[in-house]
Amino acid sequence: MTILLNADLHCHSTVSDGTLTPEDLAARAHANGVQLWALTDHDEIGGQHRAIAAAHALGLDYLTGVEISVSFLHATVHIVGLGFDADDAQLHQGLAETRGGRGGRAQEIARQLAQVGICDAYEGALRHAGNPELISRTHFARFLVETGVCSDTPEVFRRYLTEGHPGYVPHQWAALGDAVRWIREAGGMAVIAHPARYRFSPTEEYALFSEFKGHGGQGVEVVTGSHAPSEYPVYAAMAQEFGLAASRGSDFHSPGESHTDLGGLPDLPGQLTPVWELLEHRILRAPQAAVTPSVH
Ligand code: AMP
Ligand code: MN
Ligand code: MN
Ligand code: MN
Question: Distance between CA atoms of 220 and 20, rounded to whole angstroms?
Fold first, then answer.
């Protein structure tokens, strides 16, 4: 399989903090020329069977996906899982525990926002959440834009919901070793999501990559909609240094919010091993269209 495959292995549906259903995402991926797709909702794999069915109905090959929230050092890190068994009991249990604290956290976010005069934010955010178990800061961001408090999502995350601003609630997510183990023991591959986003020092970043590798992690996102193009070569070099396969994904959330569309990324740099090469045996191939003999 080629490195030039139009693979998009990171995006979000209404099952987490995207605005399109798994079916609408499959149609959009297909229309945009994606050849291998994965839906990677935050801390939730409830959309996987819908995504598989929708992809296969369109003739689109599929890898199961998830994006797990992890606490590492002082930061939240995201670990993408690809190619696991979507019915694995340990993975389901681990994800249920990881998202379990979201309701209480959301209440606390709303309490802080109320202190600066923004009322009813919990109810407002919940209205935007397609899955009430997966209420996230993105849903608060949509509420703050809807009510005119901020003009767009980037402004929300500059003024609210982040460290030092109202609505920032530190949270304990999964441990790195647990997230990698759940994915691996379900037959999948763990991938560090958008590494440039964590603002780690070089020492901290080295710790993340080496501990991840030590736990059995095998991949890193190199070409992602969450990185600037100038960051691609930096993480291509990290992939080579740590012997990690490279992934590619838009991190698409919504037509109105995401600047990178499904399937809209450049190819991986040529010297890398794409994750889909190592996951060949885990790809859920679309059934071939029946060949009907032509009648003369
Ligand atoms: P949570 O898992 O509730 O902490 O929400 C995290 C989500 O918020 C991410 O997956 C992004 O979708 C969104 N997010 C975080 N920071 C930003 C940002 N600076 N700009 C836009 N969206 C962001
Ligand atoms: Mn998100
Ligand atoms: Mn992420
Ligand atoms: Mn994401």
Answer: 26
- Structural domains of the chain, ranges and CATH numbers in brackets: 7-98+175-282 (3.20.20.140), 102-159 (1.10.150.650)
Question: Could you tell me if 173 and 201 are in contact, meaning their C-beta atoms sit under 8 angstroms apart?
Answer: no
CA of 11 to the centre of ligand 4 (A): 6
The pLDDT tens digits of the residues spanning 92-111 come to: 999 999 999 999 999 999 99
Q: Using a CB cutoff of 5 Å, list residues around ligand 4, an ion.
A: 67, 251
Do 221 and 164 contact (CB within 8 A), yes or no? no
Q: Is residue 186's pLDDT more than 80?
A: yes
Task: Say if ligand 1 is within 6 A of residue 253 CB.
Answer: yes
Report the relative pairing of strands 245-249 and 219-224 from DSSP bridges: parallel
Contact 154 CB / ligand 1 (< 6 Å): yes
Question: 3-state DSSP call for residue 76?
Answer: strand
Q: How far does CA 171 lie from the centroid of its chain?
A: 18
User: Which ligand gives the minimal distance to the CA of 257?
Assistant: 1
Measured in angstroms, how far is the CA atom of residue 293 from the centroid of ligand 4?
A: 44
pLDDT band at 42 (very low <50, low <70, confident <90, very high): very high
Report how far ligand 3's centroid is from the alpha carbon of 5 (Å). 23
User: Model confidence over 135-182: pLDDT tens digits?
Assistant: 999 999 999 999 999 999 999 999 999 999 999 999 999 999 999 999
- 75 DSSP 8-state letter: E
How does pLDDT run across 240-285, given as a tens digit for each residue? 999 999 999 999 999 989 999 999 999 999 899 999 999 999 999 9
Residues whose CB falls within 8 Å of the CB of residue 209, separated by 6 or more in sequence, listed in order: 192, 195, 220, 238, 242, 244
CA dist 260 and 252 (Å) reads 6
